Amino acid sequence: MAFPAIVPSVTAHVDDAELVRRIAAGDTEALRDLYDRFGTILFGLAYRTLGDRQLAEDCIQEVFVTVWRNAARYDSSRALVTTWLFTIVRNKAVDAVRWQSRRGAEPLPEDWSFGESPDSADIAAAAENGERVAAALAELPKPQLEVLSLTYFEGLTNAEIAERLDVPLGTVKGRLRLALERLRALAPKYALETEAQQ
Amino acid sequence: MNDADRDLLAGEALGVLTRDEEKHVAELVAKDDGAANELRRHRATVAALEAGVAREQPSADLFDRILAEIQPGPPEPVVARPAAASPRRRWSWSWAPRLATAGFAAAAIVLGLAVFTGGRGDPDLRAAVAGTTQFAGVSGEASLYEPGGSEGELVLELENVPPPPAGHHYEVWVLRSEGNGAMEAVGSFTPGSEDTRLEFRLPGAGDYRAVDVSVEPDGGPAEHSTVSLAGASFES
After folding, report:
1. DSSP string, B102-130
2. This prediction's pTM
3. Considering only residues 72 to 111 of chain B, which have any Cβ-Cβ distance to chain A shorter than 8 Å?
4. What is the predicted ipTM?
């Protein structure tokens, strides 16, 4: 199950593993398609983990550069592409915090501060929680994930989504409800702390 | 409670209802415990979603930045923000004393070296980068390519660069002999790691004397903050 491309892609029919194979062959359009599918959700995961927009963007930039350089090493028999991507995000996020923590100890002008820096264990735990949520999202049927993404990440209204997708307004509302119900059903599988788990 | 009502409860949990729809939902949950429970479950699901994945989008140019990093090609500034709008500023020479003791000597040595630089050829000028007293661990090298032409480039290779303080970024400036001490901003950056390689287009042909990396507040004035991270001098 792939994250929906907000911008229609000529390779929308291509599965994630095939995209990674094309990336390994040096296809930058395949990298763009992979970014279209997963970039937003990975950014949301990195942002929630690191708590800083710039750090999250730097993290995602490093993630996709890593994907570009290491695509040939991806083994589809060992992990889903989404699992591979989530793991890279977690590792990059932990690296970023370790680096900041080490650097934060150096003397700086008195009127500046780095603020509180969570340790890498906190970051790893936050990333793991985010991974579970992202994995549950990735299991949603594409039409449901599409409207949920447009609502959740882009902040579009139901009417705007209906216009963009050229579907009836009632269809958008129904897909949103089904998406939330499906996520709730997936909560035990991914240990999400919804009311169903409490 | 019908399917349309159930759809509205999900929309309420996600915060996407119109004012009229919100009013309808409020009336519904006030009189229907089943609806109230359903809304609570939806809200718990949305809360779990928000706990794991931020409700944010990346900048529109993020993929372009990724492409710029992976693709060889004409050098472009690999920066998160454009250079300051009014680039000509007075220069703070706060790193100069450190250069005087270490950087100048290194610059004098490396200026005589011919080094292969990834297909661009040898730089016309090279100089060691030295951190200011406050950032003494910073080091690296600055290289100028075709500074006398209209498409000259500055390549900065920095080591041990600390992350800027919260709400700050770094800005790169150059100084030309003909500028009467005025400096020109060529771009800004927030490093993704301790070791950073940056490429900038020079603002025009000139006799470039030095490079400075300053620490600037995000959204601050275009003027140099007068606080420098590091610098390099091309004058031997």
Report:
1. IIHHHHHHHTT-----TTS---SEEEEEE
2. 0.55
3. 80
4. 0.77
